[in-house]
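Hello,

Our lab assistant flagged a job as stuck in the queue for most of the afternoon. It eventually completed. Since we weren't sure the result was trustworthy after the delay, we are filing this so someone can double-check. Below is the sequence as submitted and the structure that was eventually returned. Let us know if re-running is recommended.
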Amino acid sequence: MNKKIAVIGAGNVGASCAMYLAEANIADIVMVDIVEGVPQGKGLDLTQAGPVRGYNAMVKGSNKFSDIKGADIVIMTAGLPRKPGMSREDLLNMNADIVKSVGLNIKKYAPKSYVIMVSNPLDLMTFHMRKVTGFPANRVFGQAGVLDSIRFRAFIAMELGVAMTDTNAMVLGGHGDTMVPLPRYTTVAGIPIEELIPKDRIKAIADRTRVGGGEIVKLLKTGSAYYAPGAASVDMAKAVFNDEKKVLPASAYLTGQYGIKDIYIGVPVVLGANGVEKILELKLKKAELTALQTSAATYKEHLKIMGY
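-- returned structure --
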């Protein structure tokens, strides 16, 4: 394979991304981490699974950023994970330094790449990565509502006992406690969930979605989620790599849409070969728009802390 996708970080999220990418069989993968031996070992292990998992993608592990040279897509997973009692925002200063270091290397070795951000606090780190790389906004975007919406979908499927693949959901706003699930844009086989689930249960499911990551952090006690974040990231990578023109709620740079500008936040976008090709403006109710703008205002304050 001549195409290359780089995964920065060989921890649980990075390794999950590499595994799902290999099974997608669309490109070779290079996994970069600062810990000696870990990316090499995991990369070799994943490559050896190819014969029985049905893929020909090679997975290389490395401690050198120069090995991402020529990557078409870079998935940034490196950073300190949340621990019980920590919010995504608690990670702000610690992970900002990591993102800066990685961003400078992406700019140097993969200057034409598309960057998919997974590191938390997601929306803030996506803004930071764009500033560090100097890449156009369409080439730097974050996972945000892609992960949140699949959690929402899973909870709906669990509630109704239906196929998860028959569900579709829309979650806007910041990737955190201020996210904005939109039940009226959420369906099962095209049927609005408001026709299938009582209002009180919809609210409970939406509330669970808001703290979905925190729920897993509390259960694991020593880290945060990685299978679903890895799967969500690869879904985004495939949309760009295969020019799928897929509509997903990603963290994108707004220039006035929804009355918000100069910030990254989760909104519906069209993801294709040119990255974020379009931002879709939904007709939101006043309460929904207020919730989205409130979410954005929260991140504006955090950006000030970072010096933006």
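-- support follow-up --
The delay was a queue issue, not a problem with the job. The result is valid. The first strand starts at residue 4 and ends at 8. The mean pLDDT is 94.
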